[in-house]
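== Item description ==
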Amino acid sequence: MSDAHPTPAETWRDTLAQALGEVVGRPLSSFPDVPYGAYYTGNFLAESESDRDPAWVGRAALAGEEPVRLDHLLLTPPGDTDETVLVFDASRSLFTVDPAVFPAGLAEELAALTPVHDDVLSGAELGRLADRHRVDLASAGLPGKAWTVWEARIASGDTLLDALRAATGLHAATGPHEVPAGLGDAADEVDEEAHERVAAVRDDGLRDYLAAFCDPESHDLALCLYAMEETEEEDAEDGGDEGDDGDEGDDGDWKDTEGTIVVRWEGAVDQYEVTVRPADG
């Protein structure tokens, strides 16, 4: 019998796993053991012109060697005074491209590839093609819509816990002392249901912080319970119909384009979405 005790890092990961399991409504260990990711999409990418930020197409960023940090994309929950800095992985984000505006050679390859990939390419693939044809994707000579970021992957490891930590701004917290400030005096602005959802979270600071991510009625950051209910229904049916179920028109689109959803948050009244789901590989 081993006398080994868990390290502080292991204890903290267990605390986070229990807490985030409360948020999504079931233990993380009950989900399939596959790679997961957290993905940012929505109108705000274009409205803020962040989908054309040159940082996305730096050679190191597209190769996955350097993260992209943006601090103006996530409207914070009530009580937070600082915007959450989102850290993205450009290599595993998805880009749309207009092949016709690129130099010959690259244009031909892009034109051949995009229909196969539903008109989107991963940053890694786009970077490899641009390198092969010696095209600078950040060049001012390219038209403004030569490329745009369509779906931005928040940087994280591939476990479900890693993806959920990234989606909730807890990726850098190595212990309870590094959890961002919670609701504080703004606790009354969050629906009682949100506090009830995380009532079993063991750490006080973590419980207060995560309550802001559990309000389905929030205009700042709404937890999409129906997305998780949709997933639970599919699990119960052992892989039922993948099409539109009827009442929620978008649900069918999510299944078709994004796979099984673990959890989704909608921010700024549908201006952006943060979705945790199985990764594309």
Q: What stands out?
A: The radius of gyration is 20 Å. The longest helix spans residues 8-24. The first strand starts at residue 36 and ends at 41.
